[in-house]
Amino acid sequence: MANKLIVTAAPHITSADTTAKIMQRVCLALAPTLVASVLIFGMNALILTAITVAACVFFEWGYCKLMGRENPTGDFSAVVTGLLLAFNLPASMPWWMPVVGAFIAIVIIKQLFGGLGYNFANPAIVGRIALALGFTGKMTSYVFPQAPEGLDVLASATPLAAAGELGSNSYVTLLLGTHGGVLGETCAITILVGGLYLIATKVISPMIPVAYLGSVAVLSLCFGMDPVVQLLSGGLLLGAFFMATDYVTSPTTDKGKLVFGVCLGLITMLIRRFGSMAEGVSFSILLMNLLVPYIDMLTRQDKLGIAKVKKGGEAK
Amino acid sequence: MSKFLKRSAQGGNVPHEKRTSNLETVAMPLPSKIVLSMSQHIGAPAALAVAKGDQVYVGTVVGKAGGFVSSDIHSGVSGTVDSIITITAPNGAPQTAVVIIPDGEQKVDPAVAPPQVNDLKSFQDAVRASGLVGLGGAGFPAAVKLAPKNLDEIDTLIINGAECEPYITSDNRCFLEDSQFILDGIQAVMKYLEIPKCIIGIEGNKPEAIAKMKEMATQGIEVKELPCRYPQGAEKVLIENCTGREVPFPGLPSDVGVIVMNVTSVAFVGKYLKTGMPLVTKRLTVDGDIIKEPKNVEVVIGTPVQELMDFCGGFTDEPGKVLYGGPMMGTCIADLSQPILKNNNAVLAFSRKMAQLPKPSNCIHCGRCTNACPLGLSAKEIVQAYNVGNVDLLIELNADLCMSCGTCSFVCPAKRHLAPSIALAKIMMKNGGKK
Hints:
Chain A is an all-alpha fold.
């Protein structure tokens, strides 16, 4: 028996990439933004993030334990959801509220539908929207930066006079994130760094962020809005690089990603221009999440040798 | 529209380092017996041409082609037929096989002589008599391939020297050691089939082979360096990358004016025209993490795998898996008494640790399988359709186009066994919905 050879179907090797490694890379890409949020909003940012991540992992583990399923927390996907959800909260949020958001994200949106890979919408987005609708007051009381010493120095080193003329949302403050907002969406630089890291390590394809940001820029020009402010403010960058690119709830082909990104930009700008709520990014991602199965169905790749037969057939 | 929106076809980032590239081929001494399966090719099995106790010589026909798509089988040793047995092929099918005990004299059959070739017909007959099958792995009888119905439309001969599977270097050694035979073979095929152009496609990880072929190339022969990207050597992928033509499905390379031959096959044609010795030996790469002395070996077809392993120093650890061919598309053998077949180009042995595949987890819809598929198929959708038994969707997704290259399984971060499931989906399509 000991000398029996194993017989399986080919292939007999697999790549080194695993789901857990991909999720860990996303966590790593989010780390600079976490650091920035702590610098900008103080220790409360770190505590809120820790609570949200812990709650997400706990609910993921607890639900599967209750249902007698295998413990899935090793894949790090709950950590990513927790980080993203926390990044969507203002620093003044009471500590128990993210736990509610985590429950909605992990149990209701993810696990009730079958766990990783089966959720119809991005859990963090739905968690954010649920909190925004349920606790609108708390969710929109954006805290302004505490201006810790390090940052104060930085701010005074910049030509504040010139920036001041542009109003409080000057390009520089938008890039640095030293303005009011939720934890993880204010600092454009760290989000861009994280996003580029994900593209460089091929975790995400650049198609969705490029299509999304590109269409937002074009549409804001059409609507007579400042494209730079539109790109750098609100949750757009975080949404474009980290939430819209969620594998489970985005299309798989390049064609599909292009359609998805452009539609996201369109809906976001329509909400920003004509809507009354500050939820352009969240709602557009949620709406497009629901359309992903149809986009996937309509944007399949051309198969080698198949299209040709069809064309030839028509010609005859 | 730009190609990437049409079909990304990125392929798999399969490792390309090959440690036997520089190892010159060594001839293995005669084994204690050879086992010649009557089914070493695609098509009908060969019909037995010898009986127990018969005396055979090197080159003696022991199996006669059993139809048009079939091939002769020859003995690679002189000796006596010990028995006619039934062996179980790696795919589980029972096959008739001839066991020959060598007498060590290696007397050549008097019928072996350089063939008289002066036109297309005599060339095709010679190839048929040589017992040549596609040596790249498919085992398709070469004489059938060299007799396409639309011969006058064929304008390009492609020589497949991609060798994109990890570990295997036998084609690389063929380029370096049999260069003249390759050139002779190409020139013969071009001459008798009246093909004006030949492209030799070689992956960039074989710079010596590329340099050698460029140096030797004559009128009408072009050497093309291809990116190192699995599955570069898949026929349809190779044709697209060498000529830009897409082979229609269902269809054959000849439908786009192309004939593809493996480099080892064409080298054999060149050699056969000179010597008349049929296909009785094969160059193999023997490698794997538990092979003591990895080698490129020239071995008599029919040699039991066990004796080949012994020649390479045996195993350093308990074997987990032994493969015919590469780790991406190779076939597992169940025991070491299995013989070497004509279309083998490698025997790989892996430890139990390497043989264990990781446990599959949930599909995360990352789309890597879809974007890696060289043919533009969506593996995850095909597997979903298979799991729910939706044959209409399988047809819409063209699941039967899949060539089982295994790229989807390789790139899957959830380690799902996509390629085997698609193979089952193809069977389901054929059976009209039954698993």
